[in-house]
Design a protein that fits this description.
The complex is a heterodimer of chains A (176) and B (183). Chain A is an alpha+beta fold and 176 residues long. Chain A is built from three helices and four strands, in the order ααββαββ. The longest helix of chain A is centred in the first third of the chain and has 77 residues, at 3-79. Chain A starts with a helix and ends with a strand. With 183 residues, chain B is α+β, with helices and mostly antiparallel strands. Chain B folds into two domains: 17-101; 102-181, Gyrase A, domain 2 (2-Layer Sandwich), CATH 3.30.1360.100. Chain B has helices spanning 20-101, 104-114, 142-154; strands spanning 119-126, 132-139, 158-169, 172-181. The radius of gyration of chain B is 51 Å and the shape is rod-shaped. The chains are: A alpha+beta (176), B alpha+beta (183). At the A-B interface, helix 1, helix 3 and strand 3 of A face helix 1, helix 2 and strand 1 of B.
Amino acid sequence: MKEKEKRIIIYLLLFLIIEITIYLFLIPGLKNSLLSQFDTYNYLRKSLIEAKGKNSRLKEELTKWEEVKKELFVIEKDYLFPNSIEEIRLLIKKLSLNSGVSIGDINYSYEDILENISRIKIDFSLVAPYDSLRRFIGEIEKEPRFVVLKSISLVSTSSDSINAKVSIYIYTKRKE
Amino acid sequence: MDRVGKLFLNLSPEPPRNKNPFIISVLLLILAILLFFCLDIFQIYKGINSYIRNNKSLENLRRELEKFSNENRELESRIIEIKKNYKKKVDTVNSMIEEKSLSWLLLLSIFEESLTDRTVLLSLTPSSREKTFSAEISSESLDELLKTINKLSKNKLVSEVSISSEREKEGLKIFLISMKLKG
């Protein structure tokens, strides 16, 4: 072969080698960057699924709290006792008449437990046969508003009646 | 005429030679170059195309993720705000409901079943713990008090019966017991 022909062959071979090099090294590099892009895609997708899950949980919690707010409003409106001495005294009278117990000395103490709820502790002595005492407790339990029995202490007992000290709590709307 | 051949005149200083191997080699190399060139172009085109497409998807994902993250941050801050304003109220109302749901008639029934003829219930007070309460019972006899405690322990509605203290007053033994309503 002549020198010129040899040079042509060598140039062509060099060109082929460059193309093979491109095929063997540059294209796998491109594939690798595609793979890393795919990893990023997977990571973002996973994060998105987590964010969506968290989003629905948070929305659920928010809905729950919205319901709680409504329930609290209903409780405050319908189940708290009005902050009126007259109403409270009438309640004690009603409890006593309905159950047949006689109530003696009464002490009231007041406490604000929240910005809109107060608690009135009412201590009184009570004389009644055991059955009447049970009826009295039943009357308190039947009351739909927040009137709760706090404690009962027996002072003395005889065959036909019990002398007891009773404490009840009445939860009321706080006075403005 | 058929028998007349062509006459090649060699004017070169060198003798004539066969150029076929050179031509075949060149052709093969050109073919290989073209093949690899096409392969390279096809792979690069495919790769760049996927890269651009994936980049768009990634961009969309990033935007969506950012939207959800911002929404989540906003929801979290709203929940924190509501909790700050309402948590105490909810706890208070829950404890009020718990107090209201305690049945004293049930408690009395339990004591009616458990107290012996010579034992007396002196006081009954619920404690701050859930469905736990304390009671004072008295009797002249220690055995009677122990019998009562034994009966209370066996009651299916009561658990964790324990003695908190004992004292004597005017010849009577007084036990302060603590117990929990089941359920």
